[in-house]
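Duplicate of #3305? Posting structure anyway:
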């Protein structure tokens, strides 16, 4: 896969994930659950914009700069610590549709992460760094979604983010 195709496919993946989170935010009634999905939708929209700007630059100039890709979310280490705290809380509750939204999100994040991992493994050295940053961020999304599934499954409160804020510290 060449860089133009990699960017185009990555944009498609990001659109799918963003659209899922946006639809979920509209469908959810719980304000905390809604906030999680809205935050992740904004994060994914930022990815779309970033990738589109890299593709535009590539098409116009034959190369592109890789400015830092910001994230709205905390580090993976922080997410894992928050997940451990959630696991010690009493069981939460959620509707089947809320759990279904999370399970779909988890599968989308896994698929997207696998795609980025394949790019990091196969693209030339000068091109893989861009996708390595996306891989790290998507793995953070995986951890957040999995933590929420664990909470819904009885390991903590449903989207109770008193200690588990989605805003970066």
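Output from current build:
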């Amino acid at each position: 896969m060449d860089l133009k195709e990699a960017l185009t496919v990555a944009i498609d993946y990001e659109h799918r994930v963003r659209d899922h989170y946006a639809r979920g935010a509209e469908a959810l009634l719980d304000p905390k659950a809604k906030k999680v999905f809205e935050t992740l939708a904004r994060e994914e929209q930022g990815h779309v914009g970033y990738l589109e700007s890299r593709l535009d630059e590539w098409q116009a100039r034959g190369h592109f700069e890789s400015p830092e890709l910001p994230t709205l979310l905390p580090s993976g280490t922080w997410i894992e610590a928050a997940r451990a705290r959630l696991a010690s809380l009493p069981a939460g509750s959620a509707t089947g549709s809320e759990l279904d939204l999370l399970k779909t999100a988890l599968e989308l994040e896994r698929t997207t992460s696998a795609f980025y991992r394949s790019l990091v493994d196969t693209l030339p050295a000068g091109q893989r760094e861009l996708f390595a940053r996306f891989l790290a961020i998507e793995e953070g999304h995986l951890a957040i979604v999995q933590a929420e599934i664990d909470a819904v499954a009885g390991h903590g409160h449903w989207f109770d983010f008193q200690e588990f804020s989605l805003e970066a510290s």
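Confirmed duplicate; merging threads. The two ends are 37 Å apart (CA to CA). Confidence is low (pLDDT under 50) at residues 155-165.
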